[in-house]
Amino acid sequence: MTEKETFMTRAIELSTANIENGGGPFGAIITKNGKIIATGVNLVTRTCDPTAHAEINAIRAAAAALGTFDLSGCEIYSSCEPCPMCMGAIYWAHLDKLYYAGTRTDAKEAGFDDSFIYDELALQPEHRRLKSENLLHTEALEAFRTWKEKSDKTEY
Amino acid sequence: MTEKETFMTRAIELSTANIENGGGPFGAIITKNGKIIATGVNLVTRTCDPTAHAEINAIRAAAAALGTFDLSGCEIYSSCEPCPMCMGAIYWAHLDKLYYAGTRTDAKEAGFDDSFIYDELALQPEHRRLKSENLLHTEALEAFRTWKEKSDKTEY
């Protein structure tokens, strides 16, 4: 078994164990320099937190462990192709590479909305099933102006 | 000022105040039955958490306040069009409606990657700038089979 297969096997083991523990069938691990630095499982129902997907939890744990919001140099192994929420988190965290085992189609067949959300996000807001409305656009620009003019900000 | 303009004004005020507090220029509030039940601001740099966007924080706070991962019946007001991570969270939380003030274009002009991430997610994984690799697909299906066969699971 290659090193990356060993890491993925661990992510899949986490996903299976999490079902036994009353959670969803998803697990993830984050590695740096060939070592596991954080793990995560789906805790949506157990913690009443709709954002508590395996990848989000692993990213939060890795950032806490390293004391930085920038996970450049790290890789993530997920038992399933991440949903758009988790993909967004992977981009924001600047992870170097994503490995995944199951696909969004597998997730859909198991009753999860990943595939639907991908389809929704590809549409312009006015064509999505989620109702949305733009308001006070001019007023919002003021915050961005203040941000751009601030000289001592921490960019991310 | 209409009720929804009052709520959005509050979200924008949070975004502006957050810059003063050393955070990013983003604020969000969640309402239910015409009352604010949770707020959130961007805490990425202050808490070393790349997932700590205003909307994610507001959703987590609302779910904790109501004791449920299902925020049906609630609406979210964000000072800016949510990024794909936060949009995903909005779908998973089953929020009824999204109001936003700034747009992804405004965010891009202020130096944030929202627009880039939308473009990436619309591509097939092999065409994205983020490197990814599918492995152990067969092994992953086992967890989904276990999930589908489990009779006493909490679906979400």
Offer a concise description of the structure.
Two copies of one chain form a homodimer. Chain A has seven helices and five strands.
Mean pLDDT of chain A: 95
| Sequence stretches where pLDDT stays below 50 over 5 or more residues of chain A | none
Strand content of chain A: 15-25%
Give the structural class of chain A. alpha+beta
Give the overall shape of chain A, derived from the CA principal axes: globular
Largest interface: A-B, 89 and 88 residues
What Rg of chain A is obtained from the alpha carbons, in whole angstroms? Answer: 18 Å
Strand order of the largest sheet of chain A: 2-1-3-4
- The tally of helices of chain A reads 7
Q: How many beta-strand segments of chain A? A: 5
Order of helices and strands of chain A: HEEHHEHEHHEH
What is the chains' assembly state? homodimer
Major sheet characteristics of chain A: 4 strands, mixed
Instruction: Report the span from N to C terminus of chain A.
Output: 37 Å
Give helix % range of chain A.
Answer: 40-55%
What does this structure look like?
Two copies of one chain form a homodimer. By secondary structure, the first copy, chain A, is α+β, with helices and mostly antiparallel strands. Chain A is globular and about 55 Å long. The first copy, chain A, contains seven helices and five strands. Helix content of chain A is 46%, strand content 19%. The model of chain A has no long low-confidence stretch (mean pLDDT 95). Chain A has a four-stranded mixed β-sheet, sandwiched between helices. At the A-B interface, helix 1, helix 3, helix 4, strand 4 and helix 5 of A face helix 1, helix 3, helix 4, strand 4 and helix 5 of B.
